[in-house]
Structure formats: C-alpha cells, structure tokens
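Look over what follows to help learners.
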Amino acid sequence: MTDEGIIFASIDNNETHRLRMIMDEIFGEDNFIEELIWKKSYGGGAKSKHIVNLHEYVLVYARNKEMQGEYILPPAKSVLKYYKHQDKKYEVRGPYRLQPLATTSMDERPNLRYPISYEGEEIWPDKQWQWSRERTMRALENEELVFRKAKGKWTVNYKQYLRDETGEERGSKPFSILEEAYTQQGTNEVAELLGSGKAFSFPKPSALIAHLLRYSAQSGSVVLDCTAGSGTTAHAVLALNKEDGGNRKFILVECEDYADKITAERVRRVIKGVPGAKDENLKKGLGGTFSYFELGKPIELGSILSGNRLPNYMELARYIFYTSTGEEFDPKKLNEKKNFVGESRNYKVYLFYEPDIEKLKNIALTLGRAKSIGKPGEKRRLVFAPTKYLDQAHLDELRIDFAQLPFEIYELAR
C-alpha cells in the first residue's frame, strides 16, 4: 500500500473482533478510520432462532491516517430534488435549497444567540442560531438569507447552493451505515451476467463496492482485491469509470478453480456488454480492458539452491530477471556469451556469473566488463554480479544500475 492507501475488510460478526485486533497490530490503532455497518438484507429471517441478523461489517484502515483527505460523496439523487430555487448566482453556484438558520440544539452557546436586524425589527432565535454573528452578517450582506413572516413570527433560512463559489458541486459525507446495496442485488447481477444466480454464492453487490470507491479511489487509483470471488470489484471499478470518466485500474487475485470461468468471464462480459441486461450501460458494455494471467510455479531461490550446488546460468537468470523487473522471462532472448538476460520495459538486464564457486570468487563488474556489454542506449542497464570495481561516476556515465547477486549465492561464493 502507498502512504495514501486505504483498505476495506468485509467481515461478519463471527470474526469482527479478532480481525479488528489483527488490523490494529498491522496498521496501528491510530490508523483505524471506521467500522462500517453494511445492511446486507432487507427482510426475512424465518430461520433465525433468536434475533434476525441483517448486517455485516466493513473495517476501514489507512496506511497513514494523516495522509487521508476529506471523504466526500457526490450529492445523492434523493437530495438533488430539494435544490429547486434559483437566484442571480445560478450560473456559477447552481440552484439552492433553503435550510433553517435556527437550531433546536440545547447546548449552551451564548455566542450563537444574538438578534438579526431586518425591516426595522430584531429577530431572535427561540434557542440559538447555527452560525456565528460574523458569518450570519456576511450571508445577509451577500443576500443569502431568506426571511418569512407568518402569524407575526419571523423565520430565517439560509441558501444552501448546489455548487461552491468556484462552481464545484456540493458533496456529502459518507455515513457509517450502508444501505440500499443488498446481497440479493449481487445475486441478481451474477444471474444477469452469467445466466444463473447459483453460479456464485453470496456475491457482493457492485453498488456496495462502488459506494466505497466513490470517496476513496481517485481517478487514477489502483484498486486491489486479493479475494476477487465473482469479480464484483472489477465490475464496480469499470462502472465508476464509465460514470465519471475516471481511469481507475483494478488488480484481482483469485486462486480457486472458477477464476477463469466465473471471475474473469464476468469481467469480459461487463466490458463487452450483455444484450439482455436491464441496465443500459451494462447492455452496451462498460468498456475498458484487462489481462488474465495464470500463476506459474513459484520462483524461489531455495528451489534452485541445493546444498553447496549453485544454480546454473539459466536458473539464476530467470530468477533475477523476474524478481527485479516483475516481468515474464523469455529464455529465447538469453545470450549467456554476452551476459545478456533480457529486456524489460525499463531495463536491459545483464548477468556476470559462473555456477562454479571458485570461478565466482574472481568475477566482478570491471570497467572492461561494463564496456563489453556495448554503448549505453535509451534504456539503462541493470547488471548483476558478485561485486563491482567501478565507482558511481563511471556507473552513471555508462547508464548502469548495479545489483549484487542474491545474498545466499554470495555467501556460497565466499
């Protein structure tokens, strides 16, 4: 995770308390943000013996809470209908709704109890105003207060505009209780996409994941789901990108047998479109791309070391190329005579190595060996060797990044 990273962990009430302790240990108690309550069902419970359980939890932690900004959601559609008034600021600030300036709060705040002068009268709140005197006077001067008199009593409302002074739309704070995203919706989505609601048991609804991403994943964020299940997270990311034109990326990890036929297949259909879908965007396809990879055999140094036997050149080349670049090693590109291992997006990779302990002790990256790999090109060269006899100035001039051989091999050579 990056320092700005945030993690959501979905869990039921059987293990919430244990997971909370584990997360506290990993991320630190200070980086706990919230324990969200997800109302996953909207009724039923005939089989429940005691209390009908309708919810699960989502634990929210940050890598570094101090790096987290304010969480803001787009205005809810259910609220937009209240923004129906217009004034001369409409072009920039959009419509506004009226909100009472007076509050029924019982807190003793003497500084919030003062008169507002209007049409020769002093208007006092029954208890107190929401704003300070300075803020209220500023709103009055800017014509952002609305006064009404009924049965001899004044009411004061303030204009809450849809957009701020810069034209940015007003958002809303996310709540700790999540509603209107139910498990049944997830089942219906799987049925619509894969032809049967039984293709995957208890899938998360994409609306739930999309809600969490709206305030936590910016346009260029990378979203990792390490237990991808039916592929709901990819669905939610693609839907959100379609909605706001974002460029979020997703990484899904699934090790079960259904990874291709369910997880990846759902993503394929979401991208291309499902002709029979009720949602128009899903019917046309949400667009986007993804690559599907199967996990190969683990590349572990221990698997190529046996006693005092050093790995052969090909084995070590494969290991250092993958671990240093994260890209797939192509044995056809290997040229042992020229010490060339392969080329990645960022590097040309070289290896000076002999699978013989005595010979290995005498191998080092010298100026002669550095020049033997040719003149520097556009890409830097990543060179592995037991040690080097070049200073940093020469390495920079030759566009070389030096990397020592893995510690275990170096120890055998000693």
The chain has a mean pLDDT of 90. The longest helix spans residues 232-244. The longest strand covers residues 153-161.
